[in-house]
Amino acid sequence: MSAYPLAVERFELSERWCGWKGVDVIFIAARAAIEAGPLDPPICEVVFDEEYDPFTVDTLEEAREHLRRTRVRSMDIILSHIDEDEARLTLHYSGDRLQLNGYGSDWPRARGAYDAAQAQLAGHFGITTFKLPKLPRDTVAETRKHIVIEELEAALENVDSSVENDCRRGRGKIVRNGDDEMSNSMAERTKADRQAAAKKGAATRQRKAAEKSGADTKQSAKATGNAAISTAKSLGETVKQGVKSLATRVGAARKRR
User: Fold this and answer.
1) 153 or 200, higher pLDDT
2) How far apart are CA 192 and CA 176, in angstroms?
3) pLDDT confidence tier of residue 210, bands split at 50, 70 and 90
4) What's the fold here for domain 6-125?
5) CA gap 257, 253 in Å, rounded
6) What is the pLDDT of residue 8?
7) Cβ(81)–Cβ(106) under 8 Å?
8) Where are the domains positioned within the chain?
9) What is the pLDDT of residue 29?
10) Which residue from 50, 51, 47, 84 is spatially nearest to 62, judged by alpha carbons?
């Protein structure tokens, strides 16, 4: 009975490097995988230019010698145990790209071979096992970038100048509005003072007129009273004289009798 679920009872792993330059390290990694597996007896097959004009050799030494004599487009190193299904390792090199693949039903053997090869390759390439190549300089993109930056700077300058002008206009408008408000306030205050002065003058004139009318009425009443008193006195004297005359006449008449 397998100790692993069916989904993981087979080992399978791969890794890729871009910008690969060291061909000799590929053969060192292949020999390390054979020894660490161990792949005993190992089955080796190296195929050159499989997609164009395939050429195949059976040993790593023959493959290395072929590389020294001939320029190739691609190389596939295929290593396996006597039972290929138990442990299998492939190294595919094409251009500047190198891919390592490992799989098999025998976990310790397949994983041992893969880890040994991966350690040699990663140690040569560096700590980072995946690195993108440096892109060539894109002059068109740089030109567009400069144009966009210049346009943005010009737009920003226009915005700054517009904001500054608006601020200046706003300050002038505020000052003018303040002057207008002050002038309006002074005019309203002057108008109110004039109205108050006019009301006060009218009230003063009315008061004086009332006082004069009262004085005149008082004098007229006094004159009228004095005239009435004089008339009464004159009337009293007349009555008094009439009574005296009547008494004199009555006395004279009594004397004649």
Assistant:
1) 153
2) 24
3) low
4) Hypothetical Protein Yjia; Chain: A;domain 2 (3.30.1220)
5) 7
6) 60
7) yes
8) 6-125
9) 92
10) 47
